[in-house]
Amino acid sequence: MRKGYGQFCPVAKAAEIFCERWNALLFRELGAGSKRFSELQRGVPLMSPSMLSRRLKELEQEGVIERHADAGRSATYHLTPAGEEFLPLVFALGTWGQRWTRRQLRDDEIDVGLLLWDMERTVRADAFAQQRAIVQLEFSDLPPGQRTWWFVNDGGAVQLCLQDPGFEVDLYLTVTVRDMIHIWRGDLTLRRALDEARLDAHGPRRLVRALGAWLNLGPLAGIPSARADHSTV
Questions:
Q1: What is the CATH number of the domain that holds 170?
Q2: Residues 131 and 92 occupy one common structural domain
Q3: Residue 21 maps to a domain
Q4: pTM, whole model, 2 decimals?
Q5: What is the mean pLDDT of the segment spanning 68-90?
Q6: What is the mean pLDDT of the segment spanning 34-59?
Q7: Mean pLDDT of the chain, nearest integer
Q8: What integer pLDDT is reported at residue 72 of this predicted model?
Q9: Could you give the angle at which helices 177-185 and 112-122 cross, rounded to 10 degrees?
Q10: Cα–Cα dist 40/54, whole Å
Q11: CB burial class (10 A; 0-12, 13-18, 19+) of residue 49?
Q12: How many folded domains does the chain comprise?
């Protein structure tokens, strides 16, 4: 049984659910559209499958998520109205984190898998105003087998590929993982990254101009740091 705070206070009762390790990130993932177990795993890659399964069962018992069985053994997970009421808290945590936590990243916080997963589900497939647009993203600081990724923007949907999908590339991007994370978080503006050659974008001018629209950075990216010791990245 999960240890609680032993208080009748509603703040304590809510914190027993929301503040349990990993739960806030699971609410983040469910709020961002993840529904399947494998999708949730991509958003919390350091969480073991057994722990994820246990947390999902606990949240279902608390009435904040529902499990919908599909054909066969697969299932999807969805926030209930009670669970959806946690989403403003998730956004508030993100806002506070942007304002008050350090912007410099430790090496153990550089997670290319989480970055790519967030990009795949966030970028705007229709930003380039053409039926199919292929974006090749090369991380210059990764080994060859992990360096190059392709985003296939086709028919309003985006697919991330580790193997060359076989289409002509429309836009080439080269950047380090750290700088791409800083761009994604809003620590480094796209304009500054391009001006300082920390991001190289090669392709037709109209596609380069549409890069910001394609990245589709969320509202948290626009929140500046309020720390007195803040230094630019």
A1: 3.30.1050.10
A2: no
A3: yes
A4: 0.89
A5: 92
A6: 96
A7: 94
A8: 73
A9: 50
A10: 13
A11: exposed
A12: 2
Same domain, 63 and 160: no
Q: Specify which residues 151 forms β-bridges with.
A: 135, 160
Report angle CA 94, 103, 114 to the nearest 5 degrees: 60
Q: Report pLDDT for 228.
A: 79
Amino acid at 11: V
Q: Say how far apart CA 102 and CA 10 lie, in whole Å.
A: 31
Q: Which residues span the domain enclosing 162?
A: 107-222
Q: Residue 156: which residues within 8 A CB-CB, separation 6 or more?
A: 125, 126
pLDDT digits (tens, 9 = 90+) for 171-189: 999 999 999 999 999 999 9
pLDDT one-digit tens code per residue, 98-132: 999 988 889 999 999 999 999 999 999 999 988 89
Same domain, 27 and 124: no
Shared domain for 119 and 28, answered yes or no, is no
Helix (H) or strand (E) holding 135: strand 132-139
Whether residue 205 sits in one domain with residue 132: yes
For residues 25 and 50, membership in a common domain is answered with yes
